[in-house]
Design goal:
Two copies of one chain form a homodimer.
Chain A: E1 6-12, E2 16-23, E3 28-35, H1 42-59, E4 67-74, E5 77-79, E6 84-88, E7 95-98, H2 100-108, E8 111-116, H3 117-128, E9 137-142, E10 146-152, E11 155-156, H4 187-191, H5 193-205, H6 209-218, H7 224-232, H8 236-260, E12 264-268, H9 275-289, H10 292-297, E13 299-302, H11 309-315
Parallel strand pairs in A: 1-4, 4-8, 9-12, 12-13
Antiparallel strand pairs in A: 1-2, 2-3, 5-6, 6-7, 9-10, 10-11
Helix pairs in contact in A: 1-2, 3-11, 5-8, 6-7, 7-8, 8-9
Chain lengths: ~325, ~325
Amino acid sequence: MVTPRCTVGVDFGGTNIRVGLVTDQGRVIRRVVLRTRDHATPAAFVQGVRRAIDHLASHGGRRPNRIRGVRVGAPGLIDGRHGTVHELVNVPGGWRGVPLRRLLRQGLGRCCEVDNDANVVALGEWRLGAGRGTRDSLYLTLGTGVGGGIVSNGQLVRGALGTAAELGHTLIDPRGPRCGCGRRGCLEAFVSTASVLRSARLALRHGDRILARIMTQSGGPLTPALVARAAAAGSRFSLEIWRQVGYHLGLGLASLIHTLNPERIILGGGMAGAFRLFRGGMREAIRARAFKAPAGAAQIVRAQLGDRAGIVGAAMLVWEGSG
Amino acid sequence: MVTPRCTVGVDFGGTNIRVGLVTDQGRVIRRVVLRTRDHATPAAFVQGVRRAIDHLASHGGRRPNRIRGVRVGAPGLIDGRHGTVHELVNVPGGWRGVPLRRLLRQGLGRCCEVDNDANVVALGEWRLGAGRGTRDSLYLTLGTGVGGGIVSNGQLVRGALGTAAELGHTLIDPRGPRCGCGRRGCLEAFVSTASVLRSARLALRHGDRILARIMTQSGGPLTPALVARAAAAGSRFSLEIWRQVGYHLGLGLASLIHTLNPERIILGGGMAGAFRLFRGGMREAIRARAFKAPAGAAQIVRAQLGDRAGIVGAAMLVWEGSG
């Protein structure tokens, strides 16, 4: 049997490094999960990826020459054109100025590419997920932070240094709450996990009984998922929290609709699970702030690839002139 | 002598229609100016352009077959991919749903293309003006309104309907002043001609003697140019008006830097004449709101093509697959 040629997609997260064999159609044939903290230096990362590839190849009975190349999506400030990590903060110690593509090519003896993780997921969703069939789509990940990726004319928008699509820092209100970046009123300051939890703690202090009951039942810490459960159970406080999240997200999306006129806006990340709860507020803000024609043209949908998006998207990464 | 092949660039403005013969190097060999109000219907516009081309060809001793095609930049909501004017408001009566490319092709018997005027100028500045040598540039026109055009990866970003780069409606402050579009706190509400004049009238009421003297000397109505002259002559009120214009422009640019990471930001339009007066406030806001690396990568410069930008940019307009 001739096995199909595959690309290795690597999703370099803050907790796990996922390494998978991906077909050209985006099917993940097999994958290995490494712990990030055991592979937190560039040398250890390259070695971990090499072992993972050996493992994937041997267990699949796959000849190594059927594996085409290695593509990595990593969090942080990355210049994909040159494969350099300017700054990566989600690993212990952090990385600065690491020529990761060169190190990978040297360590693996294969064609390697590196790009920002949100760009990579945007690419995967556009090629194989919720963005299929469009030329212009926008991906936002809603979680601890708010990241994004832009596809325009069927190409990733990377910008001069590769830092484009830092959509979480779109200005919403200069007098708004403090963002993780230190500034006031960024989109992320209104719609991240931290902002939901801040509002939820306020709701608890004001006597939100439904949320309090659900928290007690869960026995764990407060999470956006519990706030979503409380809203679904009729907590007015929690419903209002999600309406506010949606409204501020909508204000940010309206500016992005004016700038980019996307055909599809794809929402991923943990907070996107509450899509039904924040959809109303989001639409209200977009109606209020964006022009009717481009607002109507932008379908807003949930991401489809789930937690394989990082691997699959990375595998789709192709650089013009790369080799 | 063999004359070089030329393209006809048409700059369809609210007051004048400028029709020019443009070489591939962007030189305007000859041009004709028509009054918009005499050519305000689609049929009159097409006829006016036809006569202008005949005139340009005959006076240049130019064989009509050396004229390659006709490209039009027009204000309003235009789907360049299909050459349709969705909405054009700057002509008496306004246009809605006009298939302008088809009408031009029928009336002129030549290959014609149509796009939004700010896109066209962005393209011209990128190819031949202040954006030369970059892959990612951003053009903003600062005048009665604030429009823009985006070049990413060496291509215009048009979006799904062709309405991308409505940069004047980037959100700055939801509690800000009312914009021409009816919403509060758009970039345009802070940095357009109207906002400068509103502040200047306030300054006059509060006894700005320098501005009052300059107005009296000029004998004409209050204009941003007079407010710039007053600032240059030391009026503290007027200096503060420009600082505020710059600061709010900088807030908008910071969001655009996060989204697009441009290599060059090009400022054109009448208000860009006060560049030196608003540059300080603009830089202050960008330093305060944008990440250091992409902010440092974005050179902010004045447009170079002046009032030929519309004709030259239009002539550069080429659509993939058009013929």
